[in-house]
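Why predict the complex rather than its parts? Because the way molecules touch one another can change local conformation, and only a joint prediction can capture that. The input here totals 757 residues.
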Amino acid sequence: MTPDGTTYTFKIRRNLLWSDGKPVTAHDFVYSWQRLLDPKTAARYAYFLFPIKNAKAFNDTGSRVKDFAQVGAKAVDDYTLVVTLEKAMSYFPTLLTHSSTFPMRKDVVEKLGDKWTEPGNIVTNGPFLLEEWQHNYKLTLVRNDNYWGEKAKLRRIVGYMITEESSSLNLYETGKLDIMRGIPTSDIQRLKNTPDYYKIPLLAAYYYGFNVNKPPFNDPNVRKAFSAAIDREEICKALQGDQIPLTSWIPKGMLGYNPNVGIKFDPDKAVAYLKQAGYEKGDPRLQGITLAYNTNEGHKQVAENLQALWQKHLGVKVNIDNQEWKVFLDILHSIPAKPLASPHLFRMGWVGDYPDPDNFMNLFTSGSDNNHTGWKNSHFDKLIERAAVEIDPDVRLSLYNEAQRVLTEEEVPILPIYVYTTQKLIKPYVKGFQLNPLDEYYLDTIWVEAGS
Amino acid sequence: MGTYLVRRLGQSVITVWALVTLSFFLLKAVPGGPFDEDKQLPPEIKANIERKYNLHLPWYQQYFAYLGNLCEGDLGPSYKYLGRSVNDILADTFPVSLQLGLLSIALSFLIGIPLGMLAAYKQNTWVDTSAMFLAIAGVSLPSFLVGAILILIFAHALGWLPAALWEGPRYMILPAVTLGIRPAAIIARLTRSSMLDVIHSDYVRTARAKGLDELSVIAKHVLRNSLIPVITFSGPLIAGAVTGSFIVEHMFAIPGMGKHFITAVTNRDYTLIMGTTVVYGILLIGANIMVDFLYTIVDPRIKIR
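Output of the joint prediction:
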């Protein structure tokens, strides 16, 4: 990295081989990124590379940048990749841990088209190779004996894609699976104390957003009152899914997680906030508030809990309304443009793409496509912008602390509710499984104890 | 017979066209699109995606393009499963559902018809009552309950059969039974009631009066005539069963086609919804034509003109 933070030079190991024996080169990265950014590929994750110079313009068919040579990603020689950014960005390397930015073989992709990912076609460089893939059903991986690093411990791994959690639990309990993720909520209490049970907080948060351009929520004090009136501990207990209550916004396990930030449950304070806004508890002007969520048992439970808490502590009757997912998204996306015709409150969640707080905090900046609240705050925007380019982690931390205070204590456009967790069952004879908050699987370190 | 077939095929083409047109425009009217996701995409990326799938064109161009491709047997790319065509997806999943469906239908005929005959033959005895009790239970029990009970007994308690997955003949038993119980029950009830009608008719009395033994009376005279309602019912039954069941496939983690009927809609995967609808429509029409031919075999009084 250059001192100004805008140019990165990556040296690629010389002993890296593709599964067909050819060396992995810087050109493979450049090709992969060019393909990701090519408007014809129409990749959803193209925006991962937008920090690179001219990358966003190259992806936009309406712009002048048509030649990839103008984009700031170049292979200087076979083993050197030089990346120039639009501006400094402290977390740029973490973006490159996302699978969409991994290298790719031009000859293979161009020869096979859409079929390049099929077993027998795909050329990879990881510790395992793809042997079999029945779409939406089954994947079989075999060890890559030409892997540059420490070889995987297991020779073969079979994975099934099972959408119904109780079905995988049945298979696990009848000994057909050794590892499974996602336990049905009704079984968590029963399995919680078995040695097989593992809980991992994810880099994912569940929240409610206020439609801040629709009265009464155009007043921050009303929003604060609604935040102080909810008991997040109680909600998580009712859900029985082992979730972690959250009053701030950056989830546990990430730089900037700070449980001391945010408005804690305090019914008296909630009423005081209402008074500051000029309302009494049970004020008739506060009736007829609508809350929207997408149809789902868990979401329903949260919505009903919120409804009960606001009724009890603020004397406000909230109408709850559920919609099928895509219809709900339609409503959600029209909130900023048509605030008065939209619901007052909506449920949403955010699952991290890369392990950096920017991925969470950036969400509520004025220019974010995912900020459905209609809230715009230039002070907050500036803090996030500064934190994104700041290299010193201590300075970043204090910037995020301040930004989180603006978001969840002063302005409160959202009500964080909890950090998602995922549950896994792992047979006691399976060793070396590394749990991580992005719920990624590092299969090369797993081994099975002898005699089982 | 030949002209009949031509006429029916002509009608079928029109029916399929109407089905396609209606589904196409109904889908456009449903709120939300395939690329609305929880993570809202930047506008330039969304524009790229819409261009890739020609969704930026006016609706009539999209419609005629779809019809044109359909005539060539091309159902288009899936919007949800990147790099896969609807033809690929159906080619992978339909054989699985077909296998399971045929198995369950065979099972339901093998159980349903004898059970119904027995009940009718022993009308108003304990045999009849218990057979009909079973049939009512079979009709009323939802398949997710039947499946769960079967898994509990045969996978958990006894450990004889796998609880899910699709890896060979042993894996087919529980889902086929789960899927077959309901049609078996319906067939048993249909067989019983139509057989009772036939049993009391004049020609059966004549056959008996001729001194024929009971077995030939039942097999030659009664059974054949009482099968008409069962055949009528089997048309839609077969079309439904071979295209898979969402619940059973979901529950047993079977890579069949049934689940796409539901998930394609929740994903707004337009082309996959159209594909499953067209395939189902063609199968249903085909099964009904087949039923018409079966009528003529069972009952010579029915003639196709």
